């Protein structure tokens, strides 16, 4: 994301979000933070999009970012989970 100066990793999952899904995303975030993020860039953010029988939803995974940092720095430029969910529902129809 050029505006945020960070990688935004997106993972699509079928079914409910599990702890292993969040752990896998944390692994990806740590890898990108250690190996791909350039000097002056912000830490990466992960978004997991989930789909189950009659519902779709999203979750942010922040890696080493605290919710406080996420709220102050990133929420201004990224959609909320509810906005992502709404878009997924519309596109799914």
TrEMBL record:
Q: Which PANTHER family match?
A: NUCLEASE YHCG-RELATED, UNCHARACTERIZED PROTEIN YHCG-RELATED
The name this protein goes by in its record: YhcG PDDEXK nuclease domain-containing protein
User: The YhcG PDDEXK nuclease domain covers which part of the protein?
Assistant: 2-86
Q: Which InterPro entries match?
A: PD-DEXK-like_domain, YhcG_C
Please name the source species: Candidatus Desantisbacteria bacterium CG_4_10_14_0_8_um_filter_48_22
Supply the Pfam families for this chain.
Answer: YhcG_C
């Amino acid at each position: 994301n050029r505006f945020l100066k960070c990688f935004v990793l997106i993972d699509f999952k079928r079914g409910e979000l599990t702890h292993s899904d969040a752990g896998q995303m944390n692994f990806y975030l740590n890898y990108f933070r250690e190996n791909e993020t350039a000097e002056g860039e912000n830490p990466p953010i992960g978004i997991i999009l989930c789909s189950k029988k009659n519902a779709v939803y999203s979750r942010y995974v922040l890696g080493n970012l605290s919710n406080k940092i996420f709220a102050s720095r990133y929420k201004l430029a990224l959609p909320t989970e509810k906005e992502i969910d709404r878009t997924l529902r519309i596109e799914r129809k």
